[in-house]
Design goal:
Number of helices: 14
Radius of gyration: 27 Å
Number of strands: 16
Distance between the termini: 110 Å
Helix content: 25-40%
Number of domains: 2
Strand order of the largest sheet: 5-6-7-12-8
Order of helices and strands: HEEHEEHHEEEHEHHEEEEEHHHEEHHHEH
Low-confidence stretches: 34-38, 41-47, 55-81, 120-130, 490-499
Mean pLDDT: 78
Shape: globular
Length: 499
């Protein structure tokens, strides 16, 4: 009997083993097919390097640069690429205003004057220590010796973060998009994951990863601070700020990051390193540590290792340029049942005008500029803003005349905001994969711009004098010439600008 049982048991075990092996092979084939289907769009495309942004008032293109990813195209100009609304916009007189000469105190940072030979024992040259991954660096008081990020820091002034015609800007954008990353660590604070990336020349960038599809719409029933930060929104915000002529958002570039090589293998952050894992379909994922959205349920995953992200140039360290945080008077209540004070008090704006620091200088009109920017990009979570302590309270309802004129200009067909934004965003490296903003987003910009202009018109109708609504930051003869020029270019169905 036992002999008979053995004769039937062996074939049965063999059959079960073959069946198990076949099932494992089938599961592996299905996993690979899912992985291939998920990651084909990213792996099949080689990201392009960023093209140099067109300079306001610059009509002759600079020579292109060459990098490992391919040709680094020159600036987009009307002379180089047929009709360009973006180039025409930056050549308009409103974007080539004569600049005030910067005084000593208008610069955030400056290179110390060279000391007398008797006052020093060594050269004024800064030489870096030998450090793995970093370039040997020799800096002195000559601008040519400074890397692009340092030139950006030294170019920050009381009025703007960068000059649109500064030749260091294209070099900085190229660094953010193509330079080797030697370090990646978590940035403390905030509700969502952010990393600080370091480059061989000691420059740094703030990394924000792709968390959802670019075209994915937020559920309208969600509360306004429940949405994820979007990497393409960071890129679009920089371009919008530049198109508006504010230049108060640091340069931002999109980049395709290799999660394994450029984060996992080089990070010295143990808390970050412990959160890496491989998903069931073979994608490399991590989630880090932060207040709210850092958990396996909100993991950030490559495809299988490639990950879209935004990289923003870092501002100077707080030890060099301390900043002060201010509560936004028009912040949300952050309550699901209570209204904010500005939502209940009809004279709230009048109260703000009489309150420090908004009762002097240009702080109020700077805040209005920031509010217009937030409205155009639908940012409803501006609870605080920052200023550099060095510039006091005089740096950062009225609207600047220059801002109003630019908004009117961007409402005209030949400079339509959606068109110039669409064109500007094509300069980013990630635009080679898919548009950074979908058409509904671009159309929304035009719709919101129309709303802003309508509100200004209503305010003008409610006040007897223009000065009650428009803050004149332009000289009278320049303002009048721009006004007449805009009226000539305005179609019959548009309201002429009120002088």
């Amino acid at each position: 009997m036992r002999h008979i049982m053995r004769r039937f048991t062996r074939p049965a075990c063999l059959l079960l083993a073959c069946l198990s092996l076949a099932l494992h092979l089938l599961l592996a084939v299905i996993s690979l097919s899912v992985l291939q289907l998920t990651c084909d769009p990213l792996s099949a495309i080689t990201p392009k390097a960023p093209r140099i942004l067109p300079d306001a008032g610059l009509t002759t293109p600079r020579a292109g640069l060459v990098n490992p990813a391919g040709v680094f195209s020159g600036p987009l100009t009307s002379s180089g690429l047929g009709h360009s609304k973006l180039a025409a916009l930056f050549e308009h007189p409103l974007y080539t205003l004569p600049r005030l000469a910067l005084q000593e105190d208008d610069r955030l940072l400056r290179v110390k004057a060279r000391l007398q030979a008797s006052e020093v024992d060594s050269s004024q040259e800064w030489v870096s220590d030998t450090e793995d991954g970093y370039d040997a660096t020799h800096w002195n008081d000559s601008v040519e010796s400074h890397p692009a990020w340092l030139r950006f820091h030294l170019g920050i002034s009381r009025w703007e973060l960068y000059d649109g015609r500064d030749p260091a800007l294209p070099a900085l954008m190229e660094q953010l998009a193509t330079h080797r990353i030697v370090s990646a660590v978590q940035k403390t604070g905030g509700t969502q994951l952010k990393l600080v990336m370091s480059f061989p020349n000691y420059g740094q960038a703030l990394f924000k990863p792709m968390k959802q599809d670019r075209n994915e719409e937020t559920n309208p029933n969600l509360f306004y601070f429940s949405d994820f930060e979007r990497h393409n929104a960071e890129i679009a915000a920089f371009h919008l700020d530049r198109v508006l002529g504010f230049r108060r958002i640091p340069p931002v570039v999109g980049r395709l990051i290799n999660v394994t090589k450029e984060i996992k293998h080089i990070t010295t952050d143990r808390k970050l390193a412990r959160t890496f894992y491989t998903s069931p379909v073979g994608n490399v994922c991590f989630y880090g540590q932060c207040s709210y959205y850092c958990s396996p349920e909100h993991a950030i995953c490559g495809c299988p290792t490639n990950l879209e992200a935004s990289l923003a140039a870092m501002l100077p360290d707080l030890s060099l340029a301390p900043r002060r945080s201010w509560r936004n008077p028009w912040r949300r209540s952050y309550s699901r049942s209570k209204l904010a004070q500005w939502e209940k008090d009809p004279d709230f704006c009048g109260t703000v005008k009489k309150t420090l620091p908004y009762n002097k200088g240009t702080r109020l009109v700077d805040l209005i500029d920031m509010t217009i920017l937030d409205f155009l990009m639908s940012n409803m979570d501006r609870h605080h803003y920052e200023t550099f302590e060095k510039f006091g309270n005089d740096t950062f309802i009225l609207i600047r005349r220059s801002t109003f004129l630019r908004l009117r200009l961007l409402s005209l067909p030949q400079f339509r905001l959606s068109d110039v934004m669409r064109e500007s965003l094509t300069l980013d490296p990630l635009a080679s994969m898919a548009p950074l903003l979908s058409e509904p987003h671009l159309i929304a910009l035009d719709r919101r711009l129309s709303t802003v202009l309508q509100v200004v018109k209503q305010c003008q109708q409610q006040h007897s004098t223009v000065e009650a609504v428009i803050f004149d930051d332009l000289s009278a003869h320049i303002a009048n010439s721009f006004a007449s020029g805009l009226q000539k270019n305005t179609s019959n169905d548009q309201e002429p600008w009120r002088s």
